[in-house]
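Suppose a colleague, Dr. K., hands you the sequence of a protein chain of 283 amino acids and asks what its three-dimensional shape might be. Before reaching for any lab equipment, you can write down a predicted structure in token form. Begin with the sequence itself:
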Amino acid sequence: MEFTFRDYVRVLFRQKAVVLICVLTVGITVFVNLALKTPVYDAQVKMLISAEKQIQSPYYREVYGEHNTKVALTQSEIVKSGPVLERTVQALGLDQKPANYERKYASPLKAFLMDVYKNSETKTSAQAEDPSGQLAFRNAVAALKDAIRVEPIRDTNLFIIKVRDFDAVQAAMIANVISRSYIIFDLEQQLADLTLKYGEKHPAVQQLRDNVDRMVEKLNGNALSNIEAIGPATVKIIEQANIPLEPTGPRKKLSLLLAFFVGSVMGIVLAFIFEYMDPTFKS
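The predicted structure, expressed as tokens, is then:
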């Protein structure tokens, strides 16, 4: 017995409830997941590692004597080190962020769930006994470390610092300040080496200290001129962070359209399976 197109349509019509349930189930699931996911923005800074330093200490000889990729990976760990992150948190006051910082950017559904969770949550004794704010500061440093990704560019001395945040402007500011904090760390390493070799009064030491002070004054996240961004350090800012225009991840409309397609296919397949398993005489 051959099936015609009308027979297939008749099967789908009889099993329309199955198709409709599949489409609604997949669609609602994807919609809820999208509603519970707060949009985030990625800002990035492109850095260049230069091998020319005012003094070649054993530290730098060891680092720059290796392959470019290993050098970039080493610098990646320095970017996410305590001194760099702590300076960034302190400069931008990230430890002053409210605990429900995400709520401002979350969907109404997630904001409601966050409020419910907050009302049911009890303050811990450690939080209550933190008048100095040290716990909040350490938490801010840990959160910033989780929000950073460092990606070396293969076969080059370049790498990218990416920062993720719920606020596009804040993401760009943090990325810029981290890159400058990293440069300050690099300058301080050279300053320590020069001081040990030449003493406090040497002109090169004084000049390097002035460079550090000028860079500290620029830890505000605002854009710098290209000359200021490149700076005197051996780690150069090649491309400063711009405010990202769109959040990362798939677009909501595209995700919902894909969910409708997947739900429809799943419903059609199940409709024919149920039709095949149905022993009722129909003709």
